[in-house]
Amino acid sequence: MKEKSDIAIIGLAVMGENLALNMESKGYTVSVFNRHTERVTAFLNNRGQGKNIRGADSLEYLTAQLEHPRKVMLMIKAGAPVDEMIEQLIPLLEPGDLIIDGGNSNYQDTERRTKQVEEHGFLYIGCGVSGGEEGALHGPSMMPGGSEAAWPLVKPLFQAIAAHTDDGAPCCEWIGSGGAGHFVKMVHNGIEYGDMQLIAEVYQIMKFGLGLDNAAMAETFAAWNEGNLESYLIEITRDILRFKDESGHYPLDYILDKAGQKGTGKWTGQEALEEGVPLTLVVEAVLARSLSSMKETRVLANQTYGQSDHSIPQDSLSLQDLEDALYASKIISYAQGFMLMRQSAQTHGWKLNFGEIATLWRGGCIIRSVFLGRIKEAFDADPSLENLLIAPYFVQAIKRALPGWRRVAATAQLHGISVPCISSALAFFDGFTCERLPANLLQAQRDYFGAHTYERTDRPAGEYFHTNWTGEGGSTASTVYQK
To answer: pLDDT tier at 480 (50, 70, 90 boundaries)?
Structure first.
């Protein structure tokens, strides 16, 4: 074992352990620490035994084990614990040393922490890590951002432990300054919420609308995983539908229909509201989880209104329609996610490379799919592409899928099956492609009750008008409306 370790990891929950093992397997010597020191001992006596991993029972001993400049990676709970750990580390470090936060921190916290740590002469990275425990061990998608000078210090290590695409590209590149890395990871998680909810809605239609059993649904997802929908989430849905326990039952059928969440989807929706970006699908996916948590109330409402017959006549909807609806809705979700990244990049001064981000997500992470290759191709062809829905491939894909997509949304609603994400995706598409929306009436209403003014179609843009709708309001106007 080397005299000094290449990097330290603080936090030995499953992600921390697996990242340490991943790093060691790529030739790096790793020091580990956990606030419950018995976990360090247990790790070194089991999974870490005989490997180039050394433990520490204090932060002082941990930092003393590291070669300079020292690199300390935090794999601990987001929020106050990260701030507390940074405060403990600062007195133990020297100028040029690096602190890395690999947890699911809010990007705004990372912006603040980067400035705080740099003021002490240190470097800071906020790195989104996606892929769960399997990805951490075998190769995650990594999204680092923060102090620009820190990237050369960890680039070889990070790109060695990250997943790689089929053509060998590492699923890890520098995202940008400040909180850019954690921001992109947040959007990734928001899109993940959308992908999962879309799959769940299709499952609901198959099970309660078309009456398919688990085996038939598994075969459908298996077939879809050979085409445009090939992805990690489609693959595991196939496996979940196939899985039987030792008694021959499907565990899926006994799982309570109450979904949890850890906050990143909500943060994505909040950011979209702040930026004025219509991230409708991700927001609906977050709210669908909130609705699922109201199990007792939903049971009461079901009893109050009566059990609906969700059966869909076999000739009303095909599995091809469902595939089309899922694919088209997925396109909308990613288009909205990239809209949010584009707008937020302008707000924060980040120079995000959208094609590169698509590459980072092609391997290791939860939303990895062949679909992301199409996104990379679109941005490679036009780096200034304003919206994915304008790219030729996606235009043709939406046009092909549109009839089936409409049938699914309409049929589900006619038969009382809730499909909030499929429906909101279609509503967004119809609004996005509508030359004239009814916002003129909204502006008239706002001017009527608040004198907020409006622009006119027959006058130059930037001129604002107010109408005395009641004859009593006079000509005084309020502030100019916000676009």
So the answer is: low
Q: Kindly report the three-state secondary structure assignment for every residue of 60-91.
A: HHHHHCECCCCEEEECCCCCHHHHHHHHHHHH
10 Å CB burial of residue 100 (0-12, 13-18, 19+) is buried
Q: What angle do CA 393, 394, 397 make, to 5 degrees?
A: 90
Catalytic residue among 71, 185, 266, 376: 185
Tell me the average pLDDT across 71-77.
97
Contacts of 482 (CB under 8 A, 6+ apart): none
Which entry of 17, 111, 192, 284 is annotated as an active-site residue? 192
Find all residues with CB under 8 Å of 193, minimum gap 6, and list them. Answer: 261, 265, 268, 282, 285, 286, 289
Pairing of strands 7-10, 71-74: parallel
Model pLDDT for residues 15-40, shown as the tens digit of each residue: 999 999 999 999 999 999 999 999 99
- Continuous H helices in 382-435: 392-414, 420-432
- pLDDT reading at 252 higher than 70: yes
Of 307, 302, 293, 374, residue with least CA distance to 335: 374
Per-residue model confidence as pLDDT tens digits over 89-119: 999 999 999 999 999 999 999 999 999 999 9
Q: Would you say the pTM of this structure is higher than 0.85? A: yes
* pLDDT category of residue 156 using cuts at 50, 70 and 90: very high
Is 185 assigned a catalytic role? Answer: yes
Structure confidence at residue 448 (pLDDT): 93
> How far apart (Å, rounded) are the C-alpha atoms in residues 83 and 96?
19
Token pair for residue 121? 């002469």
HSE toward the beta carbon, residue 144, CA cutoff 13 A: 28
Q: Report the SS3 class of residue 12.
A: coil
Q: How far apart are CA 134 and CA 54, in angstroms?
A: 22
Tokens of 258: 């109450």
Whether 171 contacts 139, CB under 8 Å: yes
Using an 8 Å Cβ cutoff, are 99 and 117 in contact?
yes
Backbone angles phi, psi at 64, to 5 degrees: -70, -20
Examine the residue annotation and report whether 192 is marked as an active-site residue of this protein: yes
Summarised one tens digit per residue, pLDDT across range 177-210 is 999 999 999 999 999 999 999 999 999 999 999 9
| Cβ–Cβ < 8 Å for 175, 143 | yes
Work out the angle between the directed axes of helices 180-204 and 107-119 (0-180°, nearest 10). 160
Report the candidate in 158, 142, 12 with the shortest Cα–Cα distance to residue 76: 12
Compute CA 20 distance to the chain's CA centroid, rounded to the nearest angstrom.
Answer: 24
Compute the mean pLDDT over every residue in the chain, rounded to the nearest whole number. 95
